[in-house]
Design a protein that fits this description.
Helix content: 40-55%
Oligomer: single chain
Largest sheet: 12 strands, mixed
Distance between the termini: 46 Å
Shape: globular
Structural class: alpha+beta
């Protein structure tokens, strides 16, 4: 194993030897705006205790180490630097080490990312570290359980905004350098290395404050700030963001009964960000895609609010109390995912937070949990590469779903009381699963060890269906069947479920409404329900009503008939969302033909009032057409769906979110089918006017990409569009459209720029890949062998973030099942199996991506076989 990839065992050995106290870090980025300057000076002074006479190592991924001074003794650099580790031997009981070196700017979003705004040429910097990239910026002991206090100093151009975790204490001129200044920040409280951060550049900044009177009679005052690039300031809705921030701080301070512990609360929206956001204490960073320069739907604003609340919850879950090692990543991410939705539900005006969670967030978990690489919520994470791969639907959305089930199981009050005690017991420390279970068990009065084993330490998803015996419309025996196999062990894992059954029938207006609900405990392979005996059979029996548990639901035949004929009559938004999910699961699993799901969307999506649900089902329909519908019937299914989408675009309420959703769908699906290209061209040229539709930059690029994918957009046209949109998102839109053109030479150039060149930044790389794969299959067939040939080279030469984007994005997964072929016999599937067989020693993280892409392909082919 390369020492770039820290193992859990090495981390445990190091934490047993040392205790970190403090860091003093100076970063000199005054020349960042010069593209010829690849790096910057980084000096890190660390104080720590150690077992006398022992040896350990610092981590520093760099462009070179200039000096290492340990306890006043200058070490020989050549003898102590072992690639990314600096060996420290002969330690004393108390130690001080100072390392000076050159850290490198990044274009991958890892470490110190440098971005030049194409709109005005300005240079922007920010850092992103999780799980272990602070070592790309300064020398440190890079693991979450070695917490310390951090003091940062940053030398930068005088006119820039500079921020870090701590408050700014001083800003002084640099002697002899009138264009540079040094920012000095206050020491932080104890935190992990991966949540330290620095922001620097000519950012736009807005300020505010929030405060609260505490129970001890003192006043908590929290300065607030918001940052974005100067060229986005006109689209920056800082007033709304401040309102959300204050609502969240009020809610979580009261809920957790532990005052916000990090002093100030800054939030920065930064370019080319690899994540949705990152919970750096005192300075949270977000993707600037949340700054809506183009028209956005209410669902997008709600999703942004959810992310804002998610990161705020991390100030307690993850930052105040942090997992010992990445096995317990769920201790922060699952809780933050649950709390983010809870915060939107209880601290904002949105009333569909849990509906959107059920519709979209849990769908991510269901997808991940059916892959052969699924894992328990409490995962086995042997090293950092594995940690990087586990920021997935299990750790986030399944964990949050299971916490929602835990709340149903022990009660909300007990859950919060346990969380409060957990914070009090472990503030500024590190924990594992047992620490949290102890607090929750005491608060609830229940031994949760068995529950935790079944829910947190096993894999897979339960499927529950209802079997009914009836006589002349009256219910007799009703049995809930549970099928649950742990894919990692092959054993049945029949978990306990606290869930609700909803009985729905038509009211006097014809709407399907809940007439009764019953709370039940489901355990084992079958659960007999006597509560329903003698009741009239409902039109719809909805298992897991209100979405309390984490399960897939198979509708009984009568309920499925009701849903397929009357889905639009279900009045409750949550019930409707759960029925949509049941239909989608049936299509993805090959239980029913995918075309039937598309038909349901054509029939009922026009009346769907929940914009979050509508966007989700339209996206599912597009995926179903291109992946799950058999190739022989796909063109007809696509043409019919595009016809419905075009009709809805023209007849939707002008200016409504629904109108925008249908417009985006026409553009997206038209990348693959040409039946509505005259409409696409007409909207772009203004010859077709859709009343109320904002044909702004984002939508225009999506429409151009549809034309480009069919060879109906020239490079000159795309260049003219870019000239009118000199933004970062414009560059991405142009890169995708350019690579989408269906010409062999264009595909060859896109392949070369992604696989054989390092010139593309992370977001332009992804856009180019998306354009490359938007092509008829015959243009991409020649890249199947080159793909498998380049995998290990790409993985060894690129950072894990960039390599992951290439490996995942270029996998030849857009394959079709030919007549008479069984899914497992498809040539690309067989080629994938051969690569896996021939490369057993390939890095685990690389093999995981390939295995997952193989699984997605097999599922698509299996669904195609179902018709």
């Amino acid at each position: 194993m390369s020492n770039h990839n820290l193992s859990r065992d090495d981390a445990a050995i190091r934490s047993a030897l040392i205790t970190t106290h403090s860091y003093d870090v100076t970063l000199d980025v005054r020349d960042a705006a010069d593209p010829a300057v690849a790096g910057y000076s980084s000096t890190s002074t660390v104080t720590f205790s150690a077992e006398p006479g022992s040896a350990t190592f610092l981590d520093f991924i760099s462009g070179g180490v200039e000096s290492v001074v340990l306890n006043g003794r200058r070490l020989d650099v050549e003898s102590v630097v072992d690639r990314d580790r600096i060996i420290l031997e002969g330690l004393a009981a108390e130690n001080t080490v100072t390392l000076t070196g050159t850290a490198l700017y990044s274009r991958s979003g890892e470490g110190m990312h440098r971005f030049v705004d194409p709109a005005d040429g300005q240079c922007y910097l920010y850092t992103q570290y999780e799980p272990a990239d602070s070592r790309r910026v300064f020398a440190n002991f890079e693991q979450p359980d070695l917490k310390a206090e951090f003091t940062f100093h940053v030398i930068a151009p005088v006119g820039w905004e500079v921020a870090s975790n701590g408050v700014e204490e001083a800003r002084t001129p640099v002697p002899g350098h009138p264009t540079a200044a040094q920012w000095d920040f206050a020491p932080t409280k104890r935190m992990s290395t991966y949540i330290t951060t620095v922001l620097a550049g000519p950012y736009f900044k807005a300020t505010d404050h929030w405060g609260a009177n505490l129970d001890d009679g003192t006043r908590l005052d929290v300065p607030l700030a918001l940052f974005c690039r100067a060229s986005l300031a006109g689209s920056f809705d800082s007033d709304q963001l401040f309102r959300l921030t204050k609502s969240g701080l009020e809610f979580f301070n009261n809920l957790f009964a532990y005052p916000y512990p990090w002093g100030k609360y800054d939030q920065a929206f930064v370019p080319e960000y690899n994540l949705g956001a990152m919970e750096n204490p005192g300075l949270v960073t977000f993707t600037e895609k949340y700054v809506y320069a183009s028209r956005a739907t209410d669902a997008q604003y709600q999703a942004r609010a959810n992310t804002l609340m998610h990161e705020m919850a991390h100030m307690w879950f993850g930052d105040l109390v942090t997992m010992n090692w990445w096995d317990d990543l769920w201790l922060k991410e699952s809780f933050a995912d649950y709390m983010g939705t809870l915060g939107v539900d209880r601290a904002t005006d949105w009333d569909t937070a849990w509906v959107n969670f059920a519709s979209k967030r849990k769908a991510w978990a269901y997808l991940q949990d059916q892959l052969p690489t699924t894992h328990p919520i409490v995962a086995d994470i042997p090293d950092l590469e594995a940690a990087k791969q586990n920021f997935d639907g299990i750790t986030y959305a399944k964990g949050a779903s299971v916490l929602k089930q835990l709340v149903a199981y022990v009660g909300f009050d007990a859950f919060i009381a346990g969380s409060r005690q957990y914070f009090r017991d472990h503030a500024f420390g590190n924990t594992s699963l047992q620490d949290l279970l102890a607090a929750l068990s005491v608060a609830s009065g229940r031994d949760l060890s068995g529950w935790a084993r079944q829910w947190l330490q096993t894999s897979g998803i339960s499927t529950i269906s209802a079997e009914m015996v009836e006589d002349d419309g009256m219910l007799g025996a009703v049995t809930l069947r549970q099928d649950a196999i742990d894919p990692l062990t092959g054993h049945q894992e029949l978990r306990p479920h606290r869930m609700r059954l909803g009985l729905y029938d038509a009211d006097s207006t014809g709407a399907l409404v809940r007439t009764e609900s019953i709370d039940v405990d489901v355990a084992g392979p079958s659960t007999l329900l006597t509560e329903l005996r003698g009741k009239r059979r409902p039109a719809l029996l909805l298992v897991n009503d209100d979405d309390l548990s984490y399960v897939k639901v198979r509708l009984d035949s009568g309920s499925e008939h009701t849903v397929r004929t009357s889905l639009n009559r279900i009045s409750d938004p949550m019930a409707r969302a759960l029925c949509w999910t049941a239909l989608w699961d049936s299509a993805r699993d090959g239980v029913t033909p995918a075309a039937r799901y598309v038909t349901a969307v054509e029939q009922f999506a026009p009346s769907e009032t929940g914009i979050g649900v509508l966007l989700n089902v339209l996206g599912n329909a597009a995926s179903a057409i291109e992946r799950y519908v058999p190739a022989a019937t796909r063109e007809g299914v696509r043409k019919d769906f595009l016809g419905v989408a075009a009709e809805q675009l023209m007849t939707a309420v002008p200016g409504s979110d629904q109108q925008l959703a249908w417009a985006r769908t026409v553009a997206e699906v038209s990348r693959h089918g040409d039946s509505q290209l005259p409409l696409v061209r007409g909207i772009l040229e203004g010859t077709t006017v859709v009343e109320g539709l904002a044909v702004d930059a984002e939508l225009r690029w999506s429409l151009w990409q549809a034309l480009a994918a069919h060879g109906q957009a020239t490079l000159a046209e795309l260049d003219r569009e870019l000239d009118a949109d000199t933004t970062a998102s414009g560059r991405e839109g142009h890169a995708l459209a350019s690579a989408a053109r269906p010409e062999a030479s264009i595909k060859a150039a896109a392949w070369d720029s992604t696989v054989n060149s390092t010139g593309l930044s992370n977001e332009i790389l992804s856009a180019t890949i998306a354009g490359f794969v938007a092509a008829p299959g015959n243009l991409l067939e020649r890249y199947v062998e080159p793909y498998f040939d380049c995998l290990e080279r790409v993985w060894s030469e690129r950072s894990i973030e960039i390599a992951g984007r290439i490996v995942r994005g270029l996998f030849p997964g857009a394959q079709n099942l030919t007549e008479g072929m069984r899914p497992a016999e498809h040539p690309v599937l067989l080629r994938t199996d051969r690569w896996l067989h021939e490369h057993p020693g390939a890095p685990r993280a690389l093999r995981r991506i390939i295995i997952e892409q193989r699984s997605h392909l097999l599922r698509a082919l299996t669904a195609q076989a179902a018709g």
